Amino acid sequence: MKARTVILWSNVALSGGWFGVLQWCAFLLLQSYLASTAIVYLLATSVWLVGSVAGLVWGGRGRERTWIATAVAGYYGLRALAVAHPYDMRWLPLLLVGVAVMGAYAGRFFRCRQQANPKWLFFVENTGFVAGIIVTAVALFLWGDVFLLVAPGALGAACWLSAAAGNRRNSGGPPQKLRAAV
Question: DSSP 3-state assignment of 167?
Fold first, then answer.
């Protein structure tokens, strides 16, 4: 297997882990700073999915790293608003915009990898997602709020770097050979 293919599949697993961490960090912020209710969780989940659909259907190719940076900015915008306005439900619509922005890259991620073998793409990404959720649960016990502050940005940077390394020749997404590589 070529180094570029390894980097691309590593990016898929890393991105899945980042989605798990990003999503659960956002949900935990909303639960901690806004309201610990099922409706807030369900609204955030629904808005994440709406953002994912928007990212999937948004036209054009390329600029994946811009989408990653926007998702990171969406998380830290959500964090800043939630911390600045604790338990103020009037901010919920704007907080949910931050969740939708994060979810938009999840959809864009799959659009940028549409040439990959879908069976393996979903398997590797979902395995990373579950690992990200487990890491978030364990890390919160070990590092608490520091994890919520650092992990989404650090993993976003790692995804940004691995996406850049894997897509040097083709900024629009993975090469055609990725489908046949696995």
Answer: coil
